[in-house]
Specification:
Blueprint lengths: L1 H15 L19 E3 L8 E3 L6 E6 L4 H15 L4 E7 L7 E10 L5 E10 L9 E7 L4 H4 L3 H4 E2 L1 H8 L2
Parallel strand pairs: 3-4
Antiparallel strand pairs: 1-2, 4-5, 5-6, 6-7, 7-8
Amino acid sequence: MAKQIAFILIALLIIAAVFIFVWKIKAPTSTPSPGETAQKGTVGPTLKKETKEIPDCGTISSVKSSESEQAAKCWEEKFKNCQPAKVVMNLNLPNSEPIVYYSEIIGPGEGEHICQVKSKFLNNPNPEWINKEMICNYDNSLSFDVASQDMPERCSGPLIDLLKTRK
């Protein structure tokens, strides 16, 4: 039974990897860098970082709906162009608590057709997996579904380390 649950969760992670992205937060420095401005009226190197809103593709659900299909289409287009985006995936399995998976497209990685995607579980039957992240380098010349099938070989971070040890 435990092996079946682990297998299902790994399979769901592979499916959920279809919906991934990350936002890097850079620590403030003593001098403003491009895109940052010092706050007026403050003492010392306090900086205000201008942040860009990450386009939200929405929520993809295990229940088919036009909103879910639109979110999947948005995610696939953003992945193909390796443009920042975020998506949430909700999976409702029988006899299990809902699995909620969050993904963000970070941007181009090293090499041709490499797009970096960051993912984490927001809710999972295994509490050890919640909020652990992984960053994956996927080939965006392929569809996200196909590219994400190589997840174990293309990802790094605490989440993929946990998943690899569960086999």
